[in-house]
């Protein structure tokens, strides 16, 4: 195998290890905000953070960035843990951390900055503060509260914490530079008042730290060596460094990489939440969603998602990855592992007129030609079978190697049959084929000397089980949703879900388990859906056998 060159983060880690920068230690973190379910973009960050640490003998913290009480919920914490585990990454109890556990520490950090004359309480409303920041070409305007005495700031901040003031009445700001060319350095907010219940700290706090003050200080507190985030945070880095320098605490370092963008979908939790709340999908785990739980329910394997993250690589430039790459990765994995079975999605009945009535044969069919260990199973065959409607043409075109008047085809694992006749109803729809079989053409012991080009799948009518099958297509008809912002809902694909309610499956599938993948011969990869019951089996198509998506 060709040796892959290092990505830029691996290069940085190797340089740091060589120079002994953090005492030869690598500690990364994956820092989700528990305000929604994880998506495939998060998977990229998880694989990166856990993968990088593992490669260099380091560790990774799972830190919940739960500093924003209104949007965060325990349900999301639980789903995030399940998804990270499912992807194949583990952490110890010591490595499961919550930024909300640092509220007291962060508060003390803020007091320290106030005492150093580096933070002040501002009584102005948020819109006024924003207006005074000006624009990058002009210096901003000082707040009238900027030069408040330190003692007054200490007192007011304590009273903010004590709940004396309503929401929005005051904020704590860093005192940096109102003329700084980087707008994030123009006296940014550190704390706001929010009388809101927090999913972990309850009502203990009514002031909450802003992202910029919480994140870097949490990294530093945990002594994270490499704090990896997406590119849009590069403008926050000077502030990240400023707080650490002024507090003189552990010098974590922030690095930025390009986020994952995928075609024909949306990825931000805010937008995914809209789809859920407005009932445009069945939930966070709707198999059309780009969430990890949606992919899992759809039949993606952890390996396929990890391989995808590996394949797209880590870079510094934003790009848009075609969702067909994700399909490719799951197809590649399932081809190796999925049991081949037969299911007829659009059934047409065939009567094999010269086959004895009431007779059943158990035919042995291999489970997976790609896996010699996978063995075989018995599939019942009898006089009446279902085949796919489109495997018959009344007036076959050239090179149609399936059934038509007088044409022959092989039934997978069974016999060669010839179409002698067909039956139409009063509307001209074909309702039944009459075929004859060649008795000595049984697969594996064929002495007929007849050769046919086509092989089709089938299910015995007497032994078939009925199931529901759900086929999926792209969530959006628009390739690049970043162009349309909140208008993305105008581009929902009306054909993203097709439900087939009369599918006939071979009997072995009655024992299908959630989490097992199957190849329905010639139809794609499928798995049992969580809506399935023993009485009403439901299968999802994970992906077709070929890339058939039309742009
Ligand atoms: P969203 O906008 O979807 O809510 P977020 O960045 O606000 O994303 P967080 O929970 O804060 O969500 O993300 C946790 C980690 O996952 C962060 O380090 C973030 O940079 C990373 N991440 C989020 N989205 C992507 C993406 N599309 N590609 C790569 N990494 C991502
Ligand atoms: Mg975030
Ligand atoms: Mg977010």
UniProtKB/TrEMBL annotation:
Signal peptide stretch: none
Highest taxon above the source species: Bacteria
Stretches assigned to the Glutamyl/glutaminyl-tRNA synthetase class Ib anti-codon binding domain: 338-437
HAMAP family registered for this protein in UniProt: Gln_tRNA_synth
Annotated GO MF terms: ATP binding; glutamine-tRNA ligase activity
Binding site for ATP: 33-35, 39-45, 230, 259-260, 267-269
Domain Glutamyl/glutaminyl-tRNA synthetase class Ib catalytic: 26-335
Annotated EC: 6.1.1.18
Subunit structure: Monomer.
InterPro entries, A to Z: aa-tRNA-synth_I_CS (IPR001412), Gln-tRNA-synth (IPR004514), Gln/Glu-tRNA_Ligase (IPR050132), Gln_tRNA_ligase_bac (IPR022861), Glu/Gln-tRNA-synth (IPR000924), Glu/Gln-tRNA-synth_Ib_cat-dom (IPR020058), Glu/Gln-tRNA-synth_Ib_codon-bd (IPR020059), Glu_tRNA_lig_a-bdl (IPR020061)
Cellular compartment(s): Cytoplasm
PANTHER family in the cross-refs: GLUTAMATE--TRNA LIGASE, GLUTAMINE-TRNA LIGASE
Motif ('HIGH' region): 32-42
Catalysed conversion reaction: tRNA(Gln) + L-glutamine + ATP = L-glutaminyl-tRNA(Gln) + AMP + diphosphate
Taxonomic source organism: Arcicella aurantiaca
Keyword list, A-Z: Aminoacyl-tRNA synthetase, ATP-binding, Cytoplasm, Ligase, Nucleotide-binding, Protein biosynthesis
Family statement drawn from the similarity comment of this UniProt entry: Belongs to the class-I aminoacyl-tRNA synthetase family.
Pfam families linked: tRNA-synt_1c, tRNA-synt_1c_C, tRNA-synt_1c_C2
Binding site for L-glutamine: 65, 211
The protein, known as: Glutamine--tRNA ligase
Main location: cytoplasm
Chain ranges passing through the membrane: none
tRNA synthetases class I (E and Q) anti-codon binding domain span: 455-529
């Amino acid at each position: 195998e060709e040796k892959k060159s290092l990505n830029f983060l691996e290069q940085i880690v190797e340089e740091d290890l060589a120079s002994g920068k953090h005492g030869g230690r690598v500690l990364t973190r994956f820092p989700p905000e528990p305000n929604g379910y994880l998506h495939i973009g998060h998977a990229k960050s998880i694989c990166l953070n856990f993968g990088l640490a593992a490669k260099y003998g380091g560790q990774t913290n799972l830190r919940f960035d739960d500093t924003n009480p209104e949007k965060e919920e325990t349900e999301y914490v639980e789903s995030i843990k399940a998804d990270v585990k499912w992807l194949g990454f583990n952490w110890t109890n010591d490595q499961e951390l919550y930024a909300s556990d640092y509220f007291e520490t962060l508060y003390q950090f803020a007091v320290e900055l106030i005492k150093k004359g580096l933070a002040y309480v501002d009584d102005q409303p948020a819109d006024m503060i924003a207006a005074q920041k000006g624009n990058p070409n002009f210096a901003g305007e000082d707040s009238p509260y900027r030069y408040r005495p330190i003692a007054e700031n200490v007192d007011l901040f304590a009273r903010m914490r004590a709940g004396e003031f309503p929401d929005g009445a005051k904020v704590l700001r860093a005192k940096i530079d109102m003329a700084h060319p980087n707008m994030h350095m123009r006296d940014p907010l550190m704390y706001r008042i929010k009388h809101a219940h927090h999913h972990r700290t309850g009502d203990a706090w009514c002031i909450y730290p802003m992202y910029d003050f919480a994140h870097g200080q949490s990294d530093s507190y945990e002594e994270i060596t490499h704090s990896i985030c997406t590119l849009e945070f590069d403008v926050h880095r000077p502030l990240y460094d400023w707080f650490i320098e002024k507090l003189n605490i552990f010098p974590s370092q922030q690095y930025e990489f390009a986020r994952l963008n995928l075609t024909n979908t949306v990825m931000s939790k805010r937008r995914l939440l809209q789809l859920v709340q407005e009932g445009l999908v069945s939930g966070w785990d709707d198999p059309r969603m780009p969430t990890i739980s949606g992919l899992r329910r759809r039949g993606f394997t952890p390996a396929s998602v990890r391989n995808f993250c590996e394949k797209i690589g880590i870079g510094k430039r934003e790009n848009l990855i075609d969702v067909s790459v994700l399909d490719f990765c799951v197809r590649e994995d399932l081809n190796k592992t999925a049991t081949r079975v037969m299911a007829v999605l659009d059934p047409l009945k065939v009567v094999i007129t010269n086959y004895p009535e009431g007779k059943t044969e158990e035919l042995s069919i291999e489970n997976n030609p790609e896996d010699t260990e996978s063995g075989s199973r018995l599939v019942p065959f009898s006089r009446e079978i279902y085949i796919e409607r489109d495997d018959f043409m009344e007036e076959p075109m050239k090179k149609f190697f399936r059934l038509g008047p007088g044409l022959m085809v092989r039934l997978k694992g069974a016999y060669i049959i010839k179409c002698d006749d067909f039956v139409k109803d009063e509307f001209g729809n074909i309702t039944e084929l009459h075929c004859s079989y060649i008795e000595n053409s049984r697969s594996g012991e064929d002495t007929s000397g007849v050769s046919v080009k086509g092989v089709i799948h089938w299910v015995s009518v007497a032994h078939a089980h009925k199931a529901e099958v759900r086929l999926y297509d792209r969530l959006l008809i628009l390739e690049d949703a970043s162009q349309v912002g909140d208008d993305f809902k105008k581009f929902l694909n009306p054909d993203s879900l097709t439900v087939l309610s009369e599918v006939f499956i071979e009997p072995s599938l009655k024992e299908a388990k959630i989490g097992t993948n199957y190849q329905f011969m010639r139809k794609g990869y499928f798995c049992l859906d969580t809506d399935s019951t023993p009485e009403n089996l439901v299968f999802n198509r994970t992906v077709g056998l070929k890339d058939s998506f039309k742009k």
